[in-house]
Amino acid sequence: MTEIIDGNAVAAEIRDELTDAIETLADAGSRPGLATVLMGEDPASQTYVNMKQRDCEEVGIEGVHVEVDGDAPAEELFDAIDDLNADPDVHGYLVQSPVPDHIDYRDVIRRIDPGKDVDGFHPENVGRLVAGDARFRPCTPHGVQKLLESAGIELEGADVTIVGRSDIVGKPLANLLIQKAEDGNATVTICHSRTDDLAAKTRSADIVVAACGVPELIDGSMIGDDAVVIDVGVNRVDADNEKGYELVGDVEFESAKEKASAITPVPGGVGPMTRAMLLYNTVKAASIQED
Ligand code: GUN
User: 176: domain CATH number?
Assistant: First the structure.
């Protein structure tokens, strides 16, 4: 029987642990604060920040939401960032991407105080992660690590193929999994849109992580017998329903499930873990700043 790895259940456990840690911090006079910044009106981004704010409320983090007009000059967004950097009640924050075309997201990330960069995207935090001294592990890779750990999947000596080389998922996850650490020591292959014979690389892997943003690219024929499949993809595809769309992963779930020993669903797999690890990083930021 293929195990369906339940991200909602693991995320709920993490939120419970965090709720206790937050109470302890609050008793000592410090309530962790997380701000979300949204520039423009991208509907998916609005949904994501709403969910992040709801998560804050659930665990006792003080949530603040900042909106910047999508047509505003970059300076307006930078002013909002400077205010958050200076605000002692905001321990961590993120600027939701994508940002409008006239804004360079790299300038945005570089302006964030690295000690408040709970996404872990600032070059200083990227450098620390690569050096094996991560302060904030980016939320999705960290969530994938936690899911693998909770499912009891051995990484030591495992061949992991990651499909996707993004700065948010593929690159940091590869760096984490190769590290000489309890949750590392894997052998990692990173594939992308120019990879030759992708199927051969996924088929030979013990663990396949799909994070390329191509709906259902990876099907059962690309999965080795009893491999573990982690689907990071969240793709909106047109559907004949009330919303007019449905969410599908980067993996064709039904055929991949036939081959895999364990697999994450979409939704309900990696997504809730990403959100939980953002809360985790916020509590960590508050603990460091209040220390
Ligand atoms: N857009 C999609 N994923 C993310 C994320 O993890 N952080 C931010 N800030 N924006 C995103």
Answer: 3.40.50.720
- pLDDT tens figures, 188-235: 999 999 999 999 999 999 999 999 999 999 999 999 999 999 999 999
pLDDT at 291 over 90: no
Judgement on whether residues 144 and 266 belong to the same structural domain of the protein: yes
Are residues 100 and 148 both part of a single domain?
Answer: no
Q: How far is the CA of 97 from the centre of ligand 1 (A)?
A: 5
Claim to verify: residue 62 and residue 146 sit in the same structural domain: no
Ligand 1 atom closest to 97 (CA): 10
Q: Provide the domain limits for residue 219.
A: 139-271
Claim: this prediction has a pTM higher than 0.95: yes
Nearest to 136 by CA among 150, 154, 122: 122
Closest CA to 51 of 283, 274, 286: 274
CA-98 nearest atom, ligand 1: 1
Instruction: Judge whether 4 lies within some domain.
Output: no
Q: Does residue 37 line the site of ligand 1, with CB under 6 A?
A: no
Ligand 1 neighbour 168 (Cβ under 6 A):
yes
Virtual CA dihedral for 12, 16, 19, 23, nearest 10 degrees? 170
- Ligand 1 geometric centre to CA of 23 (Å): 27
pLDDT digits (tens, 9 = 90+) for 223-277: 999 999 999 999 999 999 999 999 999 999 999 999 999 999 999 999 999 999 9
Percent of the chain with pLDDT over 70: 100
- How confident is the model over 139-159, as pLDDT tens digits? 999 999 999 999 999 999 999
Helix (H, G, I), strand (E, B) or coil at 118: coil
* Cβ-based neighbour number of residue 84 at 10 Å: 23
Q: How far apart are CA 81 and CA 87, in angstroms?
A: 10
